[in-house]
What we know:
90 residues, mainly alpha, globular, 48% helix
Amino acid sequence: MTDSSRYEIWLTERLSALSSPPRPAADLSLGAHLRDDLGVDSLAFIELMVGFEQQFDLRLDEGDLLPSRYSTVGDVLAEVKKYVSGPRTA
Length: 90
């Protein structure tokens, strides 16, 4: 399994539990809108991102924890992949 697959699997599993109402991870798509389709509010979003930091031993920039920066599952996945693909530049 590639690292990219690991992050996507982890992300969809967590979002399936954090969505309101919860739904099977297999039902989530990268195009699913966090708020409109999944009912993910700002608190659930922060829980998701902090969980990602803990799970993969990373530290996300504070600005990248703002729910308003992301619309879809794919947006979140693209951002977290930046952290795991190499050093970040300011």
